[in-house]
Amino acid sequence: MNDGMTISVKGITKTFAGVKALDNVSLDIIAGKVHGLIGANGAGKSTLVKILAGVYQPDSGEISINGEIVSITDPRVASSLGLSFIHQELHLVQHFNVVENLTLGLPKKTKGGLIDWAATAKQLEHVLKIVGFTKSPFVQVMDLSVAEQWLIEIAKAVYQDAKFIAMDEPTAALSQSEVEILFSIVRDLTAHGIGIIYVSHRLDEVIDLCDEITVFKDGLKIMHEETKNLTKEEIITSIAGRKVETMDVFDYTFQNTDVLLRVTDLYDEKKVKGVSFELKKGEVLGLTGLVGSGRTETVMAIFGANRIKKGSLELSGRQYAPKSPGDAVNAGIVIVPEERRVEGLITNQTLNFNINLPTLHILRISKLFPLLSMLKSDKIAQEAISKLQIKSNGVNTQVLNLSGGNQQKVVIGKWLKRRPKLIIMDEPTQGVDVGARFEIYKLIRIMAKEEGTSFLIVSSDIEELPGLCDRVIVMSEGKIAGELSGTQIVKESILRLCYSSQD
Amino acid sequence: MNGSLTNQETKRKAFRFVGNYGTIIGLLIMIIVFSVLSPNAFPTVSNLLNVLNNAALSAIIAGGLTAVVIVGDFDMSIAYMASFAGVLVCGLMVKQGLPVWLAIILTILTGALIGLFNGLVVTKLNVVSVIATIGSGSLIYGLNYAYTNGSPVLTGIPKEFNQITLVRIFGKIPVDIIYMLVIVAVLWVILNRTELGQRIKAVGGNATASRLAGINVDKIKIIAYIIAGSCAAVTGILLASVMGSGTSSAGDAYLMTSFAAVYVGSATLKDGEFHIIGTLIGVLITTIGFNGLAILGISSYAQYLFQGFIILGAVALSSVSRRYAKK
């Protein structure tokens, strides 16, 4: 069945700027099995994968394949050893077609000295069949869906005769049915003797798919066990390092009737097709639906980032027509965007810089003169770090060096001093580790209750909606499919509304 | 065990050090070499003042450019602006008979307006900044020659105008150096200690995130261009004062030297981040270099070779070191 190939990692340590990303980690990856790596962001699992991929060099320790010590000095060496890597961001050349991507850097079939694309494409037929890719191989990658691009990445690995394929967060942007397809491909690959390294935050999937699971925390390997011997509770406990309180069934007696935001018949240029709802003061309103249902577009229109074609908005009873995000912010509406690195953070700057950005005026040394006090800015950044428990190397840490969860806390934290009326959050816990997730949920509930801040939370994670929101609105095809309050907020009901059509 | 540095760590720190301080080390080496080769002419107080005097004008225009580069754009029109400013200020005094102070103010205002124009074309018309400013540079060039019909403004310039750059503090220090220090200090304060400066850095770092944080990205970019245009005008005015005339192409060479200074500056003390102090050091490196070579009697064409080496060398050194510092 499999040639029993094994990658052994022994005593690997990797330090970045004095912090141990990996601390004396040893484990084995066996061909023909799916090995899941889980742990908080920054726990070490991505670092290990990057070391196997030749992107980083370990400070100490050794890697051996089938007993022979190897030195993976760069990605090409990794590739020649049969190790293939599919990163979360998908390293395909968007402007190239499938054939060009699959044969990138490899010899192609030629005729008379020129590339014969037809013949080259023919060579790829069998790998494309293995992954179930049915479109023409001459389609440009950028015209493919994320799921199809994943198929191409896997096909590429298979084409290069990979013995091991590492996948990083493959299902983050996939629908339920696409995930099933991916899983069946993975099972197929392992049946053919390929070893899979599966890195993901989604515990249910990892438990479903992986034969064995290794849990990382703070650079250490804290657990390795065959999946059949583990329960989800045990995994969560070991990731968080403490007994994690599940969301308290809080009391659904949200009484406030003051309407903060009234949305009437909202239409935007493309995706939003007549949305109406009310958001009360201090309410946590979830907005969900399938990818493409218009949730992000709706909140972007409310935030003044997208143009409103038709319809009206009312804030605290008064007409509200934002022409830019600046208008929204001045009106007391702020946003925690979907992609924190692209939309939420000034990535080449420090924690201090990012936290203080929306409230620079309070840093003035004297009200009349626009000179800023560096001491004040440090102090405010420090306050944010304590209030949100942001783990960092101090106020002057580069935000890029923070883990996903801590970055998200910076994005949220920068708005706190403005005391916003409404905080819009778009996928607030995407790519955020379990510990930070619960801290963010707690923050939301406390702010809603004690300060009367309203929240409008776009989320694809139906696990988190029931314990977090007072009400959930489900969108489908640009319109509202339904609304659930309090105890009605149950996964099955949400899904049913998500999939309902709007005919 | 946790705090001890491994071999790799030390190597990385060394590379980062070279990356950040390499250009300063280069500067020191250059000073030492020139001092050894021309011991009587180079390392003297009067030569130092001479160098600073030459550096002063470059520093002002390069400083203004730094604001635009920090915000994430380019301004290829600054040199033509400086030339035009020189011609305009002289013309206003001679042809229109305006008093010196008024001519100066109007010229700086023109620089600001051109900056505003640049900013509007880049933000509202969405033209890529390189192209937009090459275009506006061409317009300015045309305006320049239209205003003078190509002939320099040579006579009739009031003595007070020349006085502006002839004053010597304590009898020795050329006042240009003071102008430079003041303007560079003001630019430093704006970029590092004011809300505007933070917003300029934010927009340059991530315009999308800045917009979603409520910053008016267009406004900030326009202000950066206004700063660059105004500084270019100031340099043009001072240059005209020094030369005693308004020549149409007087400031053209500043384009290359300003960009060289800004980029060498980004490789100095910082990891590829543009900043005023770096630009100032970049200006000093090129000025000292030219000065040393001139003292040695090397032809002025060789100075272009030198400038090229400086830019390539400094930036290459910095980016190679940064890459090795990451491994």
Secondary structure elements and pairings:
The complex is a heterodimer of chains A (503) and B (327).
Chain A: E1 6-16, E2 19-30, E3 34-39, H1 45-52, E4 60-65, E5 68-70, H2 75-80, E6 83-86, H3 98-102, E7 110-111, E8 114-115, H4 117-130, H5 146-159, E9 164-168, H6 176-191, E10 195-199, H7 203-209, E11 212-217, E12 220-226, H8 232-240, E13 259-268, E14 273-280, E15 284-289, H9 295-302, E16 308-315, E17 318-319, H10 325-331, E18 333-336, H11 340-344, H12 351-356, E19 364-366, E20 369-372, H13 374-388, H14 404-413, E21 422-426, H15 434-451, E22 454-458, H16 465-468, E23 471-476, E24 479-485, H17 491-499
Parallel strand pairs in A: 3-10, 3-11, 6-9, 9-10, 15-22, 15-23, 18-21, 21-22
Antiparallel strand pairs in A: 1-2, 1-4, 4-5, 7-8, 11-12, 13-14, 13-16, 16-17, 19-20, 23-24
Chain B: H1 7-37, H2 45-71, H3 78-94, H4 100-123, H5 129-148, H6 159-166, E1 168-169, E2 173-174, H7 175-193, H8 195-205, H9 207-212, H10 217-243, H11 254-266, H12 276-295, H13 300-326
Antiparallel strand pairs in B: 1-2
Helix pairs in contact in B: 1-12, 1-13, 2-7, 2-8, 2-10, 2-11, 2-12, 3-4, 3-5, 3-10, 4-5, 4-10, 6-10, 7-8, 8-10, 11-12, 11-13, 12-13
Structure write-up:
The complex is a heterodimer of chains A (503) and B (327). Chain A has 503 residues and is an alpha/beta fold. Chain A folds into three domains: 6-240, Rossmann fold, CATH 3.40.50; 258-332 and 420-503, P-loop containing nucleotide triphosphate hydrolases (Rossmann fold, 3-Layer(aba) Sandwich), CATH 3.40.50.300; 339-418, no CATH class. A six-stranded mixed sheet of chain A has the order 6-9-10-3-11-12, sandwiched between helices. In chain A, helix 4 (117-130) packs across helix 5. Chain A is globular and about 70 Å long. Chain A starts with 5 loop residues before the first strand and ends with a helix. Chain B has 327 residues and is mainly α. Chain B has 13 helices and two strands; from the N terminus they run H-H-H-H-H-H-E-E-H-H-H-H-H-H-H. A two-stranded antiparallel ribbon of chain B has the order 1-2. In chain B, strand 1 (168-169) and strand 2 form a beta hairpin. In chain B, helix 1 (7-37) runs antiparallel to helix 13, helix 2 (45-71) runs parallel beside helix 7 and helix 11 (254-266) runs parallel beside helix 13. The chains are: A alpha/beta (503), B mainly alpha (327). At the A-B interface, helix 10, helix 11 and strand 20 of A face helix 8 and helix 9 of B.
